[in-house]
Description:
By secondary structure, the chain is α/β, with parallel strands linked by helices. It has helices spanning 6-15, 17-21, 35-40, 74-82, and strands at residues 2-3, 28-29, 31-32, 43-49, 64-72.
Amino acid sequence: xxxxxxxxxxxVSTRLKDCIKNHWLRVWHxxxxxxxxxxxxxxxxxxxxxxxxxQSMLAWxxxxxxxxxxxxxxxxxxxxxxxxxxxxxxxxxxxxxxxxEGR
Length: 103
């Protein structure tokens, strides 16, 4: 799973720690961008809404805290997840889910 929101990453990682520990789940803290953006910027600002963390986004919003978030491409996440040398199991991921929200 790929998630830009640092609060959500922390919550999911805590709640599903056994799945992560057993290598059934990997959670990447990253925002998704195109190849050009990711080659220039290593991080992007991400704004977490103080009242509703689920409504957080890359665009500035009132009553939010700004975090620097790693910027990756879909291809880099997919390549890393599916190559067996990058995971502790005998083979790479069987499923990679990347939701892209926003603009």
